[in-house]
């Protein structure tokens, strides 16, 4: 193997190839420090000589062709006796079958590596450049049944994904095939030291840093095997080269101007009708949110004022540049208006509400004009305005005292309570407002809808808002990241979660990547959804698998605040036996705590005072029966939370019992369960989650607890699911 990686890559580019042969790919890997079989290359069957045969009793004969990605399926790989006649026969057969149909450049004779063809002995390792995250490295079960095996394993167990930009250490604890290979089982030693696997992964990340994406965009090793001698050896490879230039860093925008968008000192609105409609609703919502009408201008010819706000005829008539311009004009007018704003320097930021540009066929020229104007502005000293949208509902900002969501107030009432430490960032406006409408007690600091992300992206917002200490929970809905914006998003998310704050992500459109999935095992197993899931979890992000999960995680972590889920020892309490069983059945990663002797004694005192001694034993789950009253419940919650062996408590209340004040005016009394619970949790460092399992007549009880800062669910299994997704 005298060819070096630069020589191989230069030759492929000169031949206008976008794939390497397997032999070339193995040479690239060998140069990176990965063990590969000994190999001899032949131009054709006639070149075979006895001295070409490798050591050993068997030899692996392979076709060499850059347009055959998976040779096994075509009969391009054969293991035969290491005899000249046997090898010659196989070469002749391969040549006759494959040479007429593929770009066969020769054949390789390979050292036959002895290994066991079984789960845990074969890996699939894929380096791939992704548009969302840049270089990624995936590890899954390998061999010819790789995709089938991955599909049979639970999500999160089937593969691990790492990034040269994001991965500080290789976490293999949840990877089924890695654990099987590197841990002892049933008194049998591990097949491979975990350090050996980590060392190989580190070499591949180094290769990614050196050569992706300028020279390589994918390297797939399948299988990477554990030989009988205990070595990790790459037996086969598929290598792809780039067909176009790729970004290596997310695009730079003047994000210092985002403060002008989120908290503008001056605003203008264009596209407002006297007769009503979205523009008029936006104007009224801006004013209703408290924005100073003297700092607001309506761009509308023929009027002096509208709703008490001064009007000007056009963009050029604005007396001074504004921090934020909101455009509600028809989509076809947007490029021209933006061009005027950019050339005249009339706004630091623009929210483009209308859709119909990038979504509709035939608008490509309009979009190109808009992007060209913005690109020219980025090259100027001012760098032009930031643009949010189009096809969005815009922004509701409490610090900015404005609301561009064009939904009438009676249709979308927000809580009049104090500001909630929540930033909801959503690509879909409808998703954002329907979620917020579920939370009667939540008044988010920011609700940001981005639409098409023509300029500003999800990653842009998160990278800037991470510096706002007033935000504790970042809830993000995204259908697709712009190029490398997933990387930008995760860099910011990692910093946020490291500070003890929460990032919740719901990624929609979780389907396998179409065309590439059909030709690449790596893309099929490690598609966009799986890559997002694994990289996000590695950065401490909570992944919502359903919309219900998304809402549950927001509610849970807003109520928990800085009460961290530091351990997994759970105290489970209920007044119904079925609910105790439900809690025990749905523990997931949590364990039922063992109460201390002091806690048991304290609980027995409560049972005595509540006359429950003949009915209740101390246990976990703790079944209080429907006979336990409000004071008894409070005492039990206090006792289990005080136990040093308890990390968190899940407390169910089936509210139909006559022993508890759970309905009407009685539920509001200071000695009722709701008031007692709220008081008890003030200053309590441990999480305590409530479950109110009853019908709609008990909605007010649940609302009381939620408003009082108690994390509240209506089913125990839903509460435990949200907790599982949080750890």
Number of strands: 31
Radius of gyration: 31 Å
Q: By helix and strand content, what is the structural category?
A: alpha/beta
Indicate the mean pLDDT. 93
Shape from CA axes?
A: flat
CATH architecture of the largest domain: 3-Layer(aba) Sandwich
Domain count: the total is 5
CATH class of the largest domain: Alpha Beta
Question: Can you tell me about this structure?
Answer:
- The protein is of the alpha/beta class and 727 residues long.
- It has five domains: 5-111, Dna Ligase, domain 1 (2-Layer Sandwich), CATH 3.30.1490; 122-240, D-amino Acid Aminotransferase, Chain A, domain 1 (2-Layer Sandwich); 254-391, 3-Layer(aba) Sandwich (Rossmann fold), CATH 3.40.50; 407-562, Succinyl-CoA synthetase domains (Rossmann fold, 3-Layer(aba) Sandwich); 569-726, Succinyl-CoA synthetase domains (Rossmann fold), CATH 3.40.50.261.
- It is 33% helix and 20% strand.
- It is built from 23 helices and 31 strands.
- Strands 1, 6, 7, 8, 9, 10 and 11 form a seven-stranded antiparallel β-sheet that branches.
- Helix 19 (597-609) runs antiparallel to helix 20 and helix 20 packs parallel to helix 21 (673-681).
- The two termini are 48 Å apart.
- Mean pLDDT is 93; it is low at 513-526.
């Amino acid at each position: 193997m005298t060819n070096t990686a630069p020589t191989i890559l230069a030759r492929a580019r000169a031949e206008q190839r976008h794939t390497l042969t397997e032999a070339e790919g193995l040479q690239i890997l060998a140069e990176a420090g990965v063990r590969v079989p000994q190999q001899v290359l032949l131009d054709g069957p006639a070149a075979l000589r006895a001295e070409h045969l490798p050591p050993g009793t068997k030899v692996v004969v392979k076709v060499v062709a850059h347009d055959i990605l998976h040779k096994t399926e075509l009969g391009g790989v054969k293991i035969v006796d290491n005899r000249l006649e046997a090898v010659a026969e196989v070469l002749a057969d391969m040549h006759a079958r494959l040479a007429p149909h593929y770009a066969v450049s020769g054949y390789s004779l390979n050292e036959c590596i002895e290994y066991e063809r079984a789960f845990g002995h074969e890996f699939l390792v894929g380096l791939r450049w992704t548009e969302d995250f840049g270089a990624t490295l995936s590890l899954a079960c390998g061999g010819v049944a790789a995709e089938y095996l991955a599909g049979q394993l639970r999500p999160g167990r089937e593969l691990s994904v790492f990034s040269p930009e994001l991965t500080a250490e290789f976490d293999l604890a949840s990877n089924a095939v890695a654990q099987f290979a590197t841990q002892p089982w049933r008194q049998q030693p591990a097949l491979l030291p975990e350090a050996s696997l980590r060392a190989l992964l580190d070499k591949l990340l180094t290769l990614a840093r050196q050569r992706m994406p300028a020279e390589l965009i994918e390297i797939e090793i399948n299988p990477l095997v554990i030989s009988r001698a205990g070595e990790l050896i790459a037996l086969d490879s598929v290598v792809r080269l780039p067909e176009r230039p790729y970004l290596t860093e997310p695009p730079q925008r003047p994000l210092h101007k985002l403060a002008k968008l989120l908290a503008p000192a001056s605003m203008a609105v264009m596209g407002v009708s006297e007769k009503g409609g979205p523009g008029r609703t936006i104007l009224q919502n801006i004013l209703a949110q408290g924005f100073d009408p003297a700092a607001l201008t309506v761009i509308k010819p023929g009027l002096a004022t509208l709703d008490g706000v001064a009007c000007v005829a056009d963009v050029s008539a604005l007396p001074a540049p504004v921090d934020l311009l909101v455009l509600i004009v028809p989509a076809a007018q947007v490029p021209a208006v933006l061009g005027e704003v950019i050339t005249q320097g009339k706004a630091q930021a623009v929210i483009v509400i209308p859709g119909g540009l990038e979504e509709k066929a035939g608008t490509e020229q309009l979009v190109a004009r808009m992007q060209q104007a913005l690109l020219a502005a980025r090259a100027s000293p001012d760098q032009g305005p930031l643009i949010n949208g189009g096809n969005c509902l815009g922004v509701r900002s409490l610090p900015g005292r404005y609301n561009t969501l064009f939904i009438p107030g009676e249709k979308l009432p927000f809580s009049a309570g104090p500001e909630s430490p929540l930033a909801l960032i959503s690509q879909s406006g409808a998703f954002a407002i329907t979620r917020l409408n579920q939370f009667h007690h939540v008044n988010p600091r920011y609700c940001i809808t981005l639409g098409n992300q023509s300029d500003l992206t999800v990653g842009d917002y998160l990278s800037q808002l991470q510096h706002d200490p007033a935000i504790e929970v970042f809830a993000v809905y995204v259908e697709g990241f712009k190029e490398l914006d997933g990387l930008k998003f995760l860099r910011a998310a990692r910093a946020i979660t490291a500070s003890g704050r929460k990032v919740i992500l719901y990624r929609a459109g979780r389907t396998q990547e179409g065309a590439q999935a059909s030709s690449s095992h790596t893309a099929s197993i490690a598609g966009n959804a799986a890559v997002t899931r694994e990289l996000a979890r590695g950065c401490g992000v909570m992944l919502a698998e359903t919309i219900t999960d998304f809402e549950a995680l927001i509610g849970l972590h807003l109520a928990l605040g800085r009460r961290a889920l530091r351990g997994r020892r759970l105290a489970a309490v209920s007044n119904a036996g079925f609910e105790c069983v439900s809690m025990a059945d749905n523990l997931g990663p949590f364990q039922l705590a063992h109460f201390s002797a002091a806690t048991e004694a304290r609980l027995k005192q409560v049972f005595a005072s509540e006359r429950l001694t003949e009915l209740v034993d101390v246990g976990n789950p703790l079944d209080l029966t429907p006979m336990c009253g409000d004071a008894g419940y409070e005492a039990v919650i206090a006792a289990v939370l005080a136990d040093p062996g308890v990390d968190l408590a899940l407390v169910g209340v089936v509210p139909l019992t006559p022993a508890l004040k759970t309905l009407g005016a009685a539920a509001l009394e200071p000695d009722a369960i709701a008031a007692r619970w709220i008081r008890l949790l003030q200053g309590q460092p441990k999480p305590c989650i409530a479950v109110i399992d009853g019908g709609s007549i008990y909605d007010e009880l649940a609302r009381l607890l939620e408003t009082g800062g108690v994390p509240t669910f209506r089913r125990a299994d839903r509460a435990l699911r949200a907790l599982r997704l949080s750890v």
